[in-house]
């Protein structure tokens, strides 16, 4: 189990703008800037905060469990048990990462397209993540604004 936690920590820590810190209840916490993307605990437990709509979709599809201490929140829990579950834990962390990365990316639409393919996102999850693509102005600077 320790090797899976170490593998997860090494991979997530290598993502752009991600830092790793000791978590207040043991384990490691991963942050995108100052926002927590998720954390690990001994025994292969991975806890990740999501917006409620994403969390509800993950639970409905059996891709995560309710968080044991705050079940009525956006937090999910996932238990890593083997190599296959390490891949799934990384997939969940990448979903969490994306909601922050899309807000700061120079080409958020391109990033969403690329990551959707790499992560094999369902149309449902892709549309849930599209909410994090910044809205751009619908007029150019040379167009007059209508009154």
Class per helix and strand makeup: alpha+beta
Please give the count of helices. Answer: 5
User: How are helices and strands ordered from N to C?
Assistant: HEEEEHEEHHH
- What Rg is obtained from the alpha carbons, in whole angstroms? 17 Å
Basic shape:
globular
Mean pLDDT: 90
Work out the number of β strands.
6
Percentage of residues in strands: 15-25%
Query: Sheet with the most strands?
Result: 6 strands, antiparallel
Q: Ranges with pLDDT <50 over ≥5 residues?
A: 137-147
With strands numbered from the N-terminus, the spatial order across the biggest sheet is 1-2-3-4-6-5
- In terms of quaternary structure, the protein is single chain
The CA-CA distance between the termini, in Å, is 62 Å
Residue share in helix: 40-55%
Structure description:
With 147 residues, this protein is α+β, with helices and mostly antiparallel strands. 43% of the residues lie in helices and 20% in strands. The protein has a 6-stranded antiparallel sheet with strand order 1-2-3-4-6-5, with helices on one face. Helix 1 (2-13) runs parallel beside helix 3 and helix 3 (83-104) packs antiparallel against helix 4 (108-119). The longest helix is centred in the middle third of the chain and has 22 residues, at 83-104. The protein is globular, with a radius of gyration of 17 Å. The N and C termini lie far apart (62 Å). The relative contact order is 0.14.
């Amino acid at each position: 189990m320790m090797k899976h936690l170490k593998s997860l920590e090494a991979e997530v820590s290598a993502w752009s703008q991600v830092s790793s810190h000791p978590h207040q209840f043991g384990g490691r916490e991963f942050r995108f800037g100052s926002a927590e993307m998720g954390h690990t605990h001994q025994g292969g437990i991975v806890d990740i905060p999501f917006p409620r709509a994403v969390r509800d979709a993950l639970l409905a599809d059996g891709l995560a469990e309710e968080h044991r201490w705050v079940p009525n929140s956006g937090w999910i829990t996932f238990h890593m048990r083997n190599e296959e579950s390490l891949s799934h834990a990384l997939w969940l962390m990448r979903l969490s990462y994306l909601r922050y990365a899309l807000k700061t990316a120079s080409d958020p639409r391109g990033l969403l397209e690329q990551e959707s393919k790499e992560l094999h996102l369902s149309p449902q999850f892709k549309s849930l993540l599209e909410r994090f693509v910044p809205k751009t102005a619908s007029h150019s600077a040379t167009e007059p604004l209508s009154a």
